[in-house]
Write a structure and sequence with these properties.
The protein is α/β, with parallel strands linked by helices. It has 18 helices and 14 strands. It is 44% helix and 19% strand. Strand 13 and strand 14 form a beta hairpin. Helix 12 crosses helix 13.
């Protein structure tokens, strides 16, 4: 098992501040394991709502949960959304001394009424798959190919990892989506998901996708929101600047886990990945996801103009702006697009993330960054 001390510390702080802490993330990303590790040494009671026995224990939830003390862990709470109102009643009691840790595989936007029921009472912690900080920076090639889901990353062979991911995709479509009350045929959602894999790293174009699937723009947008709300897809929003240029206003779409992307594209090993025409897009999504997971909650955007200038990732800290470009190139150069971004956005520094062994300064405020140095880059800015 790979230790996850950063998330343990986040849970510790959250449960001290708030009566309810929601640990959210995709299925099979390690939420249950993390919650049980967090509960070790504490007075904690665990309910798994996918267990019929545990679900029956909560037939009268206000009575059962109200009689408990200490830490109460409720797993897969999205399967019983009526519990949110019960939790609100319990934590509002003057004599309440318990803390609830609820685990879910969908965002508050997908789990109906969670934000309204627990407004002001809940703190959210989002858990992703393994990142470079957890697996070790020298393992980046394995992490890129297999993705960060624990069972995929830790599989004995590449073949075992690929088979697990194929099974995960099937289970997600046939069981997990319907459990959220979403009635979309699994074959339709699989087709849409596979099409998104080919659009990975591109600007969202609802009309193009809707024509390809024979559906309305509104319908394909709802499919995108479902995959976003279940942590399968990231919509990276555009940054707008009053610079007198036409700027892109649609989000860029990334599949959050590179291993799931590779499964949908049928890429079983490193050699097929490197030979695939979407290898550059895969590398871009992997690098951006690693930066965002390491920054944990920092608002980030992309920026692009219709004339071709762009920066893949833009974020701010203490009034300064920073940019990240991603290139699947071992000898990148500072091109015209980058220079325009540096000038128009007044970037303090630009990093170009490449599959290189060592990072190096290419110009005064531009660094070619090895992906394994992402944690050090983030630490230097924020800590």
């Amino acid at each position: 098992m790979i230790a996850r001390p950063v998330y343990i510390e986040m849970l510790s702080r959250a449960t001290k501040r708030s009566p309810v802490t929601a640990l959210l993330g995709p299925r099979q990303c390690g939420k249950t394991t993390l919650a049980k590790v967090f509960g070790e040494g504490k007075k904690a009671l665990y309910f798994d709502l996918e267990s019929q026995a545990d679900a029956r224990r909560l037939d009268n939830p206000e009575f059962v949960l109200g009689s408990l003390t200490g830490l109460v862990i409720i797993d897969e709470i999205q399967t019983m959304p009526h519990l949110f109102n019960v939790l609100r009643v319990l934590v509002d009691r003057p004599d309440n001394k318990k803390r609830f840790l609820i685990l879910g595989s969908a965002s508050p936007d997908v789990i109906r009424n969670v934000s309204e029921s627990l407004a002001g009472r809940v703190e959210f912690v989002e858990l992703s798959g393994f990142d470079l900080n957890e697996t070790g920076t020298e393992t980046w090639q394995k992490l890129w190919l297999r993705g960060g889901f624990p069972r995929s990353y830790l599989a004995r062979t590449e073949g075992d990892s690929f088979v697990w991911r194929q099974g995960f995709i099937r289970t997600f479509l046939e069981r997990d989506i319907p459990q959220l009350g979403i009635t979309i045929p699994s074959t339709t959602m699989r087709r849409f998901w596979m099409m998104l894999a080919h659009y990975h790293g591109q600007t969202w174009n609802a009309s193009e996708l809707s024509r390809s699937m024979g559906l309305s723009d509104k319908t394909v947008r709802s499919y995108l929101d479902i995959l976003t709300g279940t942590f399968m897809v990231r919509q990276l929003q555009p940054w707008h600047e009053n610079i007198g240029k036409r700027q892109v206003k649609a989000p860029k779409i990334y599949l959050r886990d590179s291993g799931i992307l590779h499964s949908l594209l049928g890429l079983t090993d490193r050699s097929t990945l490197l030979a695939h025409p979407r290898v550059g897009a895969s590398w871009e999504g992997f690098a951006i996801e690693q930066v965002l997971m390491t920054m944990k909650g920092v608002d980030a955007f992309f920026w692009a103009t219709h004339s071709g200038a762009s920066v893949d990732l833009l974020f701010q800290h203490k009034g300064k702006r920073y940019g990240v470009e991603v290139k699947f190139n071992e000898a990148p150069v500072v091109n015209r697009s980058m220079r325009i971004a540096i000038q128009d956005l007044s970037l303090e520094r630009l990093w170009i993330i490449c599959p290189v062994q060592n990072s190096y300064l290419i110009e005064e405020n531009v660094t070619v960054l090895s992906v394994k140095d992402i944690p050090q880059m983030v630490k230097a800015i924020f800590y």
